[in-house]
Amino acid sequence: MSSPQLEVSRSRSPWQWLYSGAHKLRRRWWSRRSRRLPRPVISIGNLHWGGTGKTPLTAAIASHLVEAGYRVAILSRGYGRKDRQVRVVSTGEGPLLGPSLAGDEPVLLAGEVPGAAVIVAPERYLAGRHAMERLDPPPDLFLLDDGFSHLSLARDLDLLVFPASDPLGGGRLWPGGRLREPLTAIRHADAILVGGSSADSEAMSRALEPFGLNGPAFHCERRFDSPRHVDSRIVAPGSRILLVSAIARPGDFEAVVSGLDLEVSDVITFPDHHAYPPPSLQEIHSAFEASGAQVVLTTSKDRVKLLGRLDCPLAELPLQAAPAESFWPWLDGRIASLVSS
Question: Which of 30, 93, 116, 311 could be bridged to 72 by S-S, CB 3.0 to 4.6 A?
Answer without folding.
Answer: 116
